[in-house]
Each structure stands twice: as C-alpha cells, then as structure tokens.
C-alpha cells in the first residue's frame, strides 16, 4: 500500500498521536487500519495498550507508566516504514433500517427545499450509497459515516438542538450518522434507526467498528415499530454481510 508522510507527537504523558494527511479518504483510513493491525499483531501485543484509530489519526495509550516519547517515536516510524504484511481484515457491511417518516425526519422538509429535491429523492439518494465508518465518538457508539453524496452535504444547523432523540439519523458536512442515545446535537435530522447502536451490557457494546461499511434501507412506520420492540428486548437480528477481504 501507499505510504504517507505521518506526524508523531506526544498526546499527554501516557499517549502518542500519529497523524496522516488531514482529509477524509478511504485509502488513508485503510492504511491506518493496516498499520494498527500490524501494531496489535507484531509490535504492541499486550492488552495494556489501547489503540484508537479514527479518520486520519491513531492514538496509542499506555496508562501503566509514562511513555519515553523520543525513543518510542523512532520505533513507530521504523515500524511504519517496514514492508507490512498482515492478514487482511474481514470487511463487513451492515444494512440498517431507517424510517424517514416526517415525525422522525424533522429537517426533511427544510432539506428538500434547500436542495430542490423531493423527500422521496432524498430518501432514495441516502439509501442508495454505501458509507464507511471513519470514526466512533462523540457519544459512545456514534458512527461518523463518510461517503455522503455531494447533493446531501449540508452544514450543521446554526443553532444546535438541546435534545436529539436516540436513533436519529442526521447529515452534517460530508457525513451522515446515527445518534446512539438522546443528546444535544446540531446535525440535520432526516430519519430514525430503530437498531440500538450501543449497549453497555454487551461484551462488545458497539457492534460497528472503524473501517466497516453501512448501508441504510427505508422501512415503514409499522416496520420501524416492530424493529424497535425487537431491539429493546434483544431479539433484533442484525443484517451483517461479510465482504471479500
């Protein structure tokens, strides 16, 4: 794979931040994921290391003792420059239901007016694309999905709402995403996903990982209500498609 010019800097006494070129780019994300896999498999095997990839960066965290930055920076640069050979990770596509009813899509009418498209065209466009998970935050399980069609790119709302309901599907800039829980938020809300995106009681609280892909499909209000109940009682069956590595 292509190598990039990366920067390595301290991120507090117990962490280091590696940064790639600052843009949303699938090739950059793939390089990051390959390198983090290499670190886990070959260099930083201890589970005492926390490795957090996102967008154009990787945070390496070691809480047991401070990191000797200069020496470790040299190691990291050498590791990155090596001819990395790792088993390619399994690529996953998640298909998630969204109800675009106007009760949920509270910004759909405004988006339609600003874009010159009908609500049906917006839904068709939003569901026809496959998105890549570039990061997870600012809330536990909040997925930042890149790959939004250019005609659906809208700035965040000038005044964030004090409350956005859990499951809300929004647009902001070049991204779409799902609010995993009720919170303040400034994204443009176009629908709601009934699938719980984060469950702290599970061994893996968030089933989606950085690098996964997501595609939405439209469901009726009745289907939404059914999936919502299934999700709440823990019997909803996620649609997971394994792609070629």
Explained architecture:
It is a single chain. This protein has 245 residues and is of the alpha+beta class. It folds into two domains: 7-81, Gyrase A, domain 2 (2-Layer Sandwich); 91-243, Cyclophilin, CATH 2.40.100.10. The protein has helices at residues 26-43, 69-81, 108-115, 119-128, 221-233, and strands at 7-10, 15-19, 49-54, 57-62, 91-98, 131-136, 143-146, 161-164, 168-172, 175-178, 183-185, 188-192, 213-218, 239-243. The strands form three sheets. It has an eight-stranded mixed sheet, covered by helices on one side. Strands 1-2-4-3 form a four-stranded antiparallel sheet, covered by helices on one side. Strands 8-11 form a two-stranded antiparallel sheet. A hairpin with a 2-residue loop joins strand 9 and strand 10 (175-178). It is elongated. The two termini are 15 Å apart.
- Measured between the Cα atoms of the first and last residue, the distance is 15 Å
Q: Provide mean pLDDT, rounded.
A: 92
Choose one word for the global shape. elongated
Structural class: alpha+beta
Order of strands in the sheet with most strands: 12-9-10-7-6-13-5-14
Give the proportion of residues in helices.
25-40%
- What's the number of domains? 2
Name of the CATH class of the largest domain: Mainly Beta
> Got a strand count?
14
Poorly predicted spans: none
Main β sheet profile: 8 strands, mixed
Concise description?
With 245 residues, this protein is an alpha+beta fold.
Detail the topology: elements first, then pairings.
Elements (H helix, E strand, L loop, with lengths): L6 E4 L4 E5 L6 H18 L5 E6 L2 E6 L6 H13 L9 E8 L9 H8 L3 H10 L2 E6 L6 E4 L14 E4 L3 E5 L2 E4 L4 E3 L2 E5 L20 E6 L2 H13 L5 E5 L2
Parallel strand pairs: 5-13
Antiparallel strand pairs: 1-2, 2-4, 3-4, 5-14, 6-7, 6-13, 7-10, 8-11, 9-10, 9-12
């Amino acid at each position: 794979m292509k190598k990039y010019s990366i920067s390595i800097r301290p991120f507090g006494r117990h962490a280091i931040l590696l940064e790639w070129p600052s843009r949303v780019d699938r090739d950059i994300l793939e390089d990051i994921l390959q390198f983090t896999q290499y670190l886990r498999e070959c260099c930083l095997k201890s589970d005492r290391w926390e490795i957090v990839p996102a967008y154009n960066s990787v945070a390496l965290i070691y809480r047991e003792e401070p990191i000797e930055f200069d020496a470790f920076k040299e190691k990291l640069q050498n590791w990155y420059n090596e001819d990395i050979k790792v088993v390619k990770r399994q690529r996953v596509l998640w298909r998630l239901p969204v109800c675009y009813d106007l009760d949920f899509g509270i910004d759909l009418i405004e988006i339609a007016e600003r874009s010159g498209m009908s609500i049906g065209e917006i839904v068709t466009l939003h569901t026809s694309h496959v998105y890549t998970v570039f990061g997870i935050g600012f809330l536990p399980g909040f997925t930042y999905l890149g790959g939004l069609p250019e005609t659906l790119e809208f700035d965040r709302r000038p005044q964030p709402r004090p409350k956005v309901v859990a499951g809300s599907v929004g647009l902001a800039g070049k991204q779409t995403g799902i609010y995993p829980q009720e919170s303040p938020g400034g994204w443009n809300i176009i629908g709601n996903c009934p699938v719980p995106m984060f469950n702290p009681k599970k061994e893996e609280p968030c089933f989606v990982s950085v690098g996964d892909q997501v595609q939405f499909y439209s469901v009726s209000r009745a289907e939404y209500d059914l999936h919502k109940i299934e999700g709440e009682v823990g019997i909803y069956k996620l649609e997971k498609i394994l792609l070629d590595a």
